[in-house]
Amino acid sequence: YQYAMNNDGMPTDFEEMTPEEQFIYREAFQKKDNGTLEEGFNRLDTIIKERDREREEELAKLNEQANARELLEQRVRNLVSSKPEDAVQVLRLWLNK
Predict the structure, then answer these.
(1) Coil, strand, or helix at residue 7?
(2) Residue 83 and residue 32: Cα distance in Å, rounded?
(3) Is residue 18 classed as helix, strand or coil in its secondary structure?
């Protein structure tokens, strides 16, 4: 879309692009001809921001899970070093589940 805003014709390597890339360029120049390029650009910007937000949320969730797992591992290590007989009981309970 930005390329279409700044140029009047397709890129020189258009024929070498994937069908998906060609579709995007065609759509951008079609919107430019219709006078709706700015709308399309804003729509794509909104979609990209939404995907980035979802990605950040997923990364935060994964980070939280990793931290919880790390804390659990540390607690198990402490239990094994301080009370090995209790650690064996805990492991047996986990294995039975």
Answers:
(1) coil
(2) 72
(3) coil
pTM over 0.90: no
Contact 59, 35 (CB under 8 A): no
- C-alpha distances in angstroms, 4 versus 15, 20, 49? 16, 16, 21
Residue listed under structure tokens 């986990």: 94
Token pair of 68 as six digits: 């919880």
| pLDDT tens by residue, the chain, 97 residues | 889 889 999 999 999 999 999 999 999 999 889 888 888 888 888 999 999 999 999 999 999 999 999 998 898 888 888 888 888 888 888 888 7
Give the C-alpha separation, 23 to 17, whole Å: 10
And the tokens for 56?
């950040």
- Token code pair at residue 19: 């069908």
Which H/E stretch holds residue 46? Answer: helix 37-82
